Amino acid sequence: MRLINKILTRVIILGSICTVLFAQEPYEGLTFYSSGKSAYLYDMDKNLVHTWKSDYNSAATAHLLRDSSVLYSGRDVNGWSGGVLHGGRFQIIKWNGDLAWDFEYSSSQYCPHHNMEIMYYTDDPKEVPNVIASVYQKGTGMGSARPDKLVEIKPTGLKTGEIVWEWNSWDHKTTDPDNHPELLEDPGSNGREWTHVNNISWNRDLDQLIVDIKSFHEIIILDHSTTTQEAAGSTGGKYGKGGTILYRWGQARNYGISGNDYLSGFHGGAWVHTICPRTFEPLPGGGKNVLFFHNDEHELFEITLPGLGDGVYPRESGAAFGPKEPIWSVDQRLSRHEGSIQKLPNGNYLIGDPDGGIYEIAPSGEKVWSITGMRCNQARRYSYSYLDPNVGIKSKSFQSKDALSFTIDTKSQRGLAKITFSKPVRHAQVSAFTLSGKKIFSNVLERHSLEWDISSLACGTYIVQANIGTRTTSNFFNVVK
Known about the structure:
2 domains, single chain, 4-stranded antiparallel β-sheet, Immunoglobulin-like
């Protein structure tokens, strides 16, 4: 097994910065997953905080949204047969259980399966995200190949949705893959579940998609800035290559290069995002690193993509796409089917394992938090500040562990916001941000409260974050004039 580190430290290379991380305490927050006909939220004391219920069994994945509703993928096949983890029903379930969206998308010719990704295009807290899903398809001339397409759906009404973007793998095949690494090898007559996409991950800053193609034992990166027409060809889009492959990694022999064949059966290929959602806490390796749940090798690992982080991936002529090996890996007893991995702000990783439950590990592989007794295909940890503050969550750990609890009063006639802590604190770093992450205020609290002039701020929603050492908490506030 390719194991980089089995001691209680790891070294991460970020440009020219070398950071040594020791075994970490758990990252405080709320843990989310879906299973059966429900999605669940747990606190750090393993108390069930909230449940969202559907009439349909989960098709492997769900997402907690900004307004504390859930985007849920349900198994609702309409005439389709064959394959695994079918979807077919997309729902947005509100905190109170009401359905805000209930959209059916399947037929005898196509069916969503496995993973879906949410796509927020703005920082508006009221925005309803688009969803992009992997879709099995059948058709004339495809034989038994069942190639995947990616479909982006915009909710337009309670039971309606608009297809706003598509990418079809069948448009990008070749019988000469050695000379066309930007294309996928034609399946010929042996193509059942030719691609088998099992995960999609979007980088909003680059407008690129990581797509797991399990049948090829690779991830590929695609340009999402294209139109649907451009995505069917080889020109257009931000990166000028249409819907062809910008980068691929895992099995270099797929395009005629020996060596660097790293992946076999795997899941979870996903970006390390720049920040933890709605906290502005930076994630180590954010924007350049990719995470893997390597089922066949019982290994979790992380790679750094080649290039400058600008979405261009250099490759020497005749060589494989880099890197040659991960920057971090650790052995774990993993399920042979499904699974997820998420990077946390403290350098730890949250693992969703269908056989092992949900657990957080330090870089050494040491478990620092776990919850078992459920079968989940994917799990995510959210900071306490991610939830809509109006949902009225009642959780022991949510209240007692948030030692930096504070309120924000913006009703002053003098254009001031007063930030008041629930208990006396000293040397707390208090900062304010726009929802896009731009810092607009910073000060050190030396007393029970402080005032901040917000008279020049535009109307909208902002976030205040307070830090003392490793303790962090955040609150939202609105400016109304």
